[in-house]
Amino acid sequence: MELSTRITNITGGGSDGWGVFYRARRMIREGIKVTELTIGEHDIRTHPDILGAMHAAAVAGHTGYAEVPGILSLREAVAARITERTGVVTKAANILITPGGQAGLFAAHNAVCNQGDTALFIDPYYATYPGTIRAVGAEARAIVTSPDTAFQPTYEAIAAQATGAKSLLINTPNNPTGAVYSTETLNAIARACKEHDLWLISDEVYDTQVWDGAHISPRTLPGMTERTLVVGSMSKSHAMTGSRVGWICGPEEAITHLITLATHTTYGVAGYIQDAAEFALGQGQQVEEAVAAPFLRRRALTLDVLKGQNVVRPLPIQGAMYAMLDIRATGLSGEDFANGLLDAHHIAVMPGESFGSAAAGHIRVAMTVDDADYVAALQQLVAFAQSHVPK
Predict the structure, then answer these.
(1) Under CATH, which number does the domain 64-283 receive?
(2) Cβ neighbours for 159, distance < 8 A, ≥ 6 positions apart
(3) Handedness of CA 241, 259, 95, 112 (dihedral sign)
(4) Which one of 128, 263, 287, 375 is least enclosed by Cβ atoms within 10 Å?
(5) How confident is the model over 54-111, as pLDDT tens digits?
(6) Between the CA atoms of 262, 264, 268 and 270, what dihedral angle is there, to the nearest 10 degrees?
């Protein structure tokens, strides 16, 4: 019996880029201590008050089927948050609650792409992006950026790939690069979308982690509200990664059809988890700032450890919980560097090649362990790099 090409082609017939991560996890299972700087998982966990709200909701009986679009009060809370932060009037009818941001990305591409359509994404990219596009039966086409411009896409690069495309997926603040798209970049993106009649899918799950500049949602730009689907999540902002609760914000007609899709796929999100998300949003911005604070602090530690040498060079760390490091001076690929570092020092980082061709010769470091272990790991990483500089 044969499986569908849609599911067997999700990774494009190649690796999914997670080999170093899986090897590190095998080492941990074998009892080897590994410092994991791989995935975007907070070293703090969901706040006990949020868990208390979740527990209380479950004990009170909110464990049955919840409304598929999301509980109205949570949709209203998300809409109010977006209205306050962007100035674009947003209502519950513009919101679908999803089982996390990844489910939102999959649903959004289902909403705008037909079988065989072309969907654009920016390289470097979060590892699931091209697979998500292929999973809905579309062709994934990369727009390659450059470290020389801090991985900010240009109008010319988008326009060169836009002929025949239906959508463009962007992510700012960006995983893996740490870039926060400038006003100039976002205006260029908006221009390309309008001129080439593209839907814009904007992944904004890191909107609370901005260290330089400001987060601008492209939905706020002229002519973009009706052609933009924004994906948001509680995972990064409130350290609720395992709770799997996020949203799509978009035009009411699109949300109506996305609700139909959810009825035939996820059938909604558990009510007690939605109650906890609503409680968390109600605690205000200070909770989000507390969750983000360790990464802002470790950004400063990163820059301090890396100063005074030029073998390991950081790209601008403007946002998110990662540092993208240029290790091309070693002569190693990102993959060889990451595997060598894991073998030599039991430190796990992600090869840049896991995120596309543009990040070759780089590694991504997740700033997700306590400060002392993080500094020690970075110092060992620099020493490892220096030992591999060609003589």
Answers:
(1) 3.40.640.10
(2) 192, 195, 196
(3) positive
(4) 263
(5) 999 999 999 999 999 999 999 999 999 999 999 999 999 999 999 999 999 999 999 9
(6) -160
Distance from C-alpha of 30 to C-alpha of 275, rounded to nearest angstrom: 39
Q: For tokens 């091309």, what's the residue? A: 328
Q: Does pTM top 0.90 for this prediction? A: yes
- Residue 346 has a CB neighbour count (10 Å cut-off) of 17
Residue span(s) of the chain under CATH 3.90.1150.10 come to: 5-45+286-387
Sequence ranges of the chain with CATH classification 3.40.640.10: 64-283
- Amino acid letter, residue 9: N
- Residues with Cβ < 8 Å from 124, sequence gap 6 or more? 145, 151, 174, 176, 177, 324, 352, 355, 356, 358, 359
Residue-wise pLDDT for 119-175, tens only, equals 999 999 999 999 999 999 999 999 999 999 999 999 999 999 999 999 999 999 999
**Secondary structure in 3-state letters for 239-301:** CCHHHCCEEEECCHHHHHHHHHHHHCCCCCCCHHHHHHHHHHHHCCHHHHHHHHHHHHHHHHH
Q: Are 223 and 88 in contact (CB under 8 A)?
A: no
**Residues 198, 239: Cα–Cα separation, whole Å:** 33
What does the DSSP assignment read for 67-81?
PTT--HHHHHHHHHH
Q: Provide DSSP, 326-381.
A: E-GGGT--HHHHHHHHHHHH-EEEEEGGGG-GGGTTEEEEE--S-HHHHHHHHHHH
**CATH homologous superfamily for the domain 5-45+286-387:** Aspartate Aminotransferase, domain 1 (3.90.1150.10)
Q: Identify the bridge partners of residue 347 per DSSP, sorted by sequence position.
A: 35
Residue 353 CB neighbours (<10 A) = 21
CA distance 174 to 187: 17
